[in-house]
Amino acid sequence: MTTIKSNINKAEATAAISAEPMLTPEEVVEQLRAIRARIPEFVQLPRTRVTDGMRRKARINVEFARGAFSIVGASDVVQGVVGNSADELHRAEDEKARWSAVESELHAMWSGVATANIVRGDRIAQAALQAYNVSTQLVKQTAYAFLLPHVERMKRLPKYGRRRTKPAAEAQPAPATPGTTPVPKAQAD
């Protein structure tokens, strides 16, 4: 079985099909920031107990919420306490559903961009590994001895990711001075 490599880059093929030119990463960031500025109630929340509680409550059962909307519509007292009419609550629920569709689409876009970066990284890795493997064979010939410093340097580098650092040795406790008794840490707290 033979593999046929195409000289046509997928991005170039897509650009040829599409009348729109491909965006640069900087253009995408600029457009995302412009969109972000126009999204109502856009906010970043830190992970705290309060926001964890908000996330939990935001997953309220839809049928439970609709039952509550019915109660609000049936009682002026309940509506006064809640501060919203049943119609306002139904519109808020509809708005949340519409923004959930946006969230889903953005997640799909994020996933596609992340996957495209994996493909780019794989392409770079294939070329780098091929260059290294060819170079290790070529340096065996005197005509290619000039590649030796490059190959030797690459041999010292990890091929994937970063090297794991060994954890620093735990500091030894200082010896106690005469006349003092060290207090165990559990008691000191």
Can you offer a commentary on this structure?
By secondary structure, this protein is mainly α. Helix content is 61%, strand content 0%. The chain has helices at residues 10-17, 25-36, 49-58, 62-74, 76-82, 86-138, 148-156, 185-188. The radius of gyration is 31 Å and the shape is elongated.
Task: Outline the low-pLDDT stretches.
Answer: 1-7
Question: Biggest sheet, in brief?
Answer: none
User: Can you count the helices?
Assistant: 8
Beta-strand residue fraction: under 5%
Helix content: 55-70%
How many β-strand stretches?
0
Average pLDDT, rounded to a whole number, is 86
* H/E topology pattern: HHHHHHHH
State the distance separating the first and last CA atoms: 70 Å
Going by helix content, strand content and strand pairing, the class is: mainly alpha
Net shape: elongated
Break the fold down into its secondary structure elements and pairings.
Elements: H1 10-17, H2 25-36, H3 49-58, H4 62-74, H5 76-82, H6 86-138, H7 148-156, H8 185-188
Helix pairs in contact: 4-5, 4-6
